[in-house]
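Box 3.1 A note on notation
Throughout this textbook, protein chains are presented in two layers. The first layer is the amino acid sequence; the second is a token string describing backbone geometry. Keep the layers aligned when reading.
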Amino acid sequence: MKFWNTLQVCNLRILFDNNIPVPVRKSLPQHEVLTMIEMNWPPHLENGELLKAAEEAGFEVLMMADQNIQYQQNLTGRSLSLIVLGSNIWPIVRSHVTAISDAVARINPGSYEFIEMVVPPKDRNRR
């Protein structure tokens, strides 16, 4: 029996923080996607520590749902790009996987991209 080594082309190394639904990974098959858990990183890294650790580990994109990061961290001069999702609720995120994939395709080093996700209002008549 012969086994052939195949070259797998990976466009970007992407890190999902703890709030990104892991099934999003399926919409990014040409990229190397890892989670903080897979990296064995502490789950409660502060944003600044997370940005630094991701850059040092060679990630090019950090995907998260913390919409305040652009106000909390100075992103100037970073090589790491950020994609921030407007929700971390899988049924909502699932309907935006094409927008997520498109954002990854157009992202530039050190840039910030926010993907708006409208959360439907709660049905107040349900009991």
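The domain at 13-115 is CATH 3.40.50 (Rossmann fold). The CA atoms of residues 39 and 57 lie 9 Å apart.
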